[in-house]
Specification:
Blueprint (H helix, E strand, L loop, with lengths): L2 H4 L6 H26 L3 H5 L4 E5 L7 E2 L9 E10 H4 L4 H18 L5 H6 L3 E6 L1 H8 L7 E9 L7 H5 L12 H9 L6 E6 L5 E7 L5 E5 L3 H11 L11 E6 L5 E6 L23 H10 L8 E4 L9 E4 H7 L2 H11 L1 H10 L28 H5 L8 H12 L3 E3 L4 E6 L4 E4 L4 E3 L3 H17 L13 E8 L5 E11 L2 E12 L12 H16 L4
Helix pairs in contact: 10-18, 11-13, 11-14, 11-17, 12-17
Bound molecules: zinc ion (ZN).
Length: about 550
C-alpha cells in the first residue's frame, strides 16, 4: 500500500503528514488487533454486543389525516455512530482505504475529528453529520463497528398547528374528560420506533432493520391534508401579507368532520380555537343566529319590513325587508328582530349550537381551547342581537353556521376520527353529537339570504360567478382600536357541502385610501373566495 503515496510525498507535505499520522494510527490499530486476536481478553469478549438499537423518531405515534397521510413534518437528523470495540478491530489489510476515506469525509464535517481521540473513548461515539456526509459514509461498506441512521425530529416551528398540538399528548398532564386525556389512554404504552443494527462475523454492522412495537397505536384526524395544503398556499400569498394572521376552519357539512384548521402564522397561539384568549367578538356573523331563531320561532317572515333610522347603524338604511337588512347587515333592524326573540331564547339557540363552550374539548397545559363568553342579559338585547358583548371562537361559529347548511341539524365539529393499531385497523372510532335546531324551511331561507349577501350585499367580494356559495360578513372590535374581520359561508367541492369560517384578527386600521376602514367584507370575504376557487381547481 505504501508505494501509492511515495510519489506524492514531495508534492504535498500536508498529505504526507496526514499519511504518516495515519500509518502510525494503523500500526496502533494493528497492534491492538494483534493483542485482541492472540490474547482475546475475556472481558472484551463478554461485553461484546452484536446488536445495537437507536430511537429513530422523537415521537412514538403517527398523526395521520383522514386519508392516512402523515400530517407531521420532520427535520431529519443524520447520525454516525462509531462503536469503539468492534471499530478497534479494523485492520491494515482489509479496511485501510475505507478508513482513510472516512477520516477525510469526517474531517470536512468536523476538523477536530481524529481516530486517536475516538479510540480513547469507550462504548458508542455519536456524530451529527450532514445528509451529504451520511450518503458518502454509507458507501463505505467494509469498516468494522460503524453505522449510520436518520432520526426524525418533529418540526416545531409551526407549534400551533393542530397536528403539532396533538404531538404533545404524551408529554403533558391532561384534564380528566379532555380530548387529549382520552387519546392519551390509547397511546400511553406506545414505544418509540427503533432502528436495529447487527454485527456480522467480520464485526461490520451490515444488517439494519426498523422495529415498531406491535402494541403501538396511531391517531387519525378528520383533517384532509390536501385541502389544508391548498388553503396554506392561499394564505401565503403576497396579497395577504398585510394581515398579521388569518384563521381558516372548514367542516364537512353532513358529518361535522373538520377538514382543515389552518392559520397563516402557526407560531402564534391557535386562533381558530381561541387558545390563550377568551375568544373574540363575532359581530355581524352572529346575525345568522338571530335570524335563525326569529324565523324558526315564527316571529317574523323573511319579507317583513322594518325601518332603520340609524340609531346603531352609521348610515340610515330606511325601510328594508329582513332579507335586505341581512344583505346590508343593518344593525338597527337586527336589534329589533333580536328583541322579538328575547335574551333567553337567543341564548338557547346559541348554546344548542355550541357557543360559549368548548367544541373539541381540548384542555391541557397552556393549550386550553377557549370557551368563549356568554353575554350578560344586562348587556342589552340590542347589542347581543348583532353579536356584541360576547366572545366566541371561530370553531364555535363554524359549527353554528354549518347548522344552516345542514338543513337545521347541528353537527358538533370534531377532529379525532379514530385510533388505529400498527396495521391501520380501527381500534376506536370517534362519533359526534347531533341536534335538530331549525326547521328545514328556516335553514333554506337563511341559506338563500346568505347567497344574496355575496350576490349583492356586504359579501360581494366573495362572489364567484359559477359556484354556489353564500355567507355573512362580520367586523368586530379587537384590541387597541383594531378590528376583527369575519366571513362565514358555505361552498361545495364536487357533490360535498362544506362550511368555512375565515377570521382575520386584529386588522391594523388603515389610513390609506385604497383600504379605508377594513372589515370582514374587505379582508375575510376575498380570502374565502380565493380558497373556494383554489379548492375547486382541477389539477
Ligand atoms: Zn341600518
Amino acid at each position: 500500500m505504501f508505494y501509492i503515496f511515495t510519489g506524492k510525498f514531495n508534492r504535498n507535505k500536508r498529505l504526507a503528514q496526514i499519511t504518516a499520522m495515519f500509518l502510525i494510527l494503523i500500526m496502533i490499530l494493528t497492534a491492538k488487533l494483534y493483542v485482541l486476536q492472540v490474547y482475546p481478553s475475556e472481558k472484551v469478549q463478554s461485553s461484546y454486543q452484536n446488536h445495537q438499537e437507536e430511537n429513530i423518531s422523537n415521537i412514538n405515534y403517527m398523526i395521520l389525516d383522514t386519508n392516512g397521510k402523515d400530517l407531521m413534518t420532520y427535520d431529519k437528523k443524520y447520525v454516525l455512530v462509531i462503536d469503539t470495540k468492534p471499530f478497534s478491530l479494523n485492520n491494515y489489510e482489509e479496511t485501510l482505504e475505507d478508513l482513510m476515506a472516512l477520516n477525510f469525509i469526517m474531517k470536512s464535517e468536523n476538523p477536530e475529528f481524529n481516530y486517536a481521540n475516538i479510540m480513547k473513548q469507550s462504548g458508542k461515539v455519536y456524530f451529527n453529520i450532514s445528509e451529504d456526509t451520511y450518503n458518502k459514509i454509507n458507501n463505505l461498506k467494509n469498516i468494522k463497528g460503524i453505522y449510520t441512521y436518520i432520526k426524525d425530529e418533529i418540526d416545531t416551528k409551526k407549534a400551533w398547528s393542530i397536528n403539532n398540538m396533538f404531538s404533545k399528548i404524551l408529554d403533558e398532564e391532561h384534564e380528566t374528560g379532555s380530548l387529549e386525556g382520552e387519546v392519551y389512554n390509547y397511546l400511553k404504552d406506545n414505544e418509540k420506533p427503533k432502528s436495529e443494527f447487527y454485527l456480522d462475523n467480520r464485526a461490520v454492522y451490515a444488517k439494519q432493520c426498523v422495529s415498531i412495537s406491535d402494541n403501538n397505536k396511531n391517531i387519525k384526524l378528520t383533517i384532509d391534508k390536501d385541502i389544508e395544503d391548498k388553503v396554506r398556499k392561499v394564505l401565503d400569498k403576497e396579497e395577504y401579507s398585510y394581515l398579521s394572521n388569518i384563521g381558516i376552519s372548514i367542516v364537512e357539512t353532513s358529518s361535522g368532520k373538520i377538514r382543515a384548521m389552518v392559520q397563516k402564522d402557526e407560531s402564534a397561539a391557535n386562533i381558530n380555537l381561541g387558545i390563550q384568549q377568551i375568544g373574540y367578538e363575532p359581530g355581524s356573523i352572529y346575525k345568522i343566529i338571530t335570524l335563525g331563531a326569529a324565523l324558526d320561532m315564527g316571529l317574523i317572515n323573511i319579507n317583513d319590513t322594518f325601518t332603520c333610522n340609524g340609531k346603531i347603524c352609521k348610515e340610515v338604511h330606511g325601510k328594508l325587508s329582513v332579507e335586505q337588512a341581512f344583505e346590508k347587515s343593518c344593525n338597527d333592524i337586527f336589534a329589533e328582530v333580536g328583541s322579538k326573540v328575547g335574551y333567553e331564547k337567543l341564548m338557547e339557540y346559541s348554546e344548542a349550537q355550541g357557543l360559549y363552550d368548548r367544541v373539541l374539548n381540548l384542555e391541557s397545559g397552556n393549550r386550553n381551547e377557549a370557551k368563549g363568553v356568554k353575554p350578560l342579559k344586562e348587556a342589552g338585547i340590542n347589542n347581543i342581537s348583532i353579536g356584541q358583548c360576547m366572545n366566541v371562537t371561530p370553531v364555535q361559529m363554524l359549527g353554528a353556521i354549518n347548522t344552516i347548511v345542514n338543513n337545521g341539524v347541528y353537527e358538533k365539529p370534531y377532529i379525532v376520527e379514530s385510533i388505529l393499531d400498527k396495521d391501520d385497523n380501527v381500534i376506536k372510532e370517534f362519533k359526534t353529537d347531533k341536534k335538530k335546531v331549525y326547521s328545514e324551511t328556516t335553514s333554506k331561507l337563511i341559506k338563500n339570504s346568505m347567497r344574496q349577501v355575496v350576490i349583492k350585499g356586504t359579501g360581494i367580494k366573495a362572489y364567484i360567478g359559477d359556484l354556489d356559495i353564500g355567507g355573512k360578513t362580520g367586523s368586530a372590535t379587537g384590541n387597541e382600536g383594531k378590528t376583527h374581520g369575519w366571513f362565514a359561508g358555505y361552498f361545495n367541492i364536487g357533490e360535498k357541502n362544506y362550511t368555512m369560517v375565515v377570521f382575520t384578527p386584529e386588522i391594523e386600521s388603515r389610513k390609506d385610501k385604497e383600504y379605508g376602514e377594513l372589515g370582514g367584507g374587505d379582508t375575510a370575504a376575498p380570502i374565502f373566495k380565493d380558497i373556494v376557487k383554489t379548492l375547486n381547481m382541477r389539477e
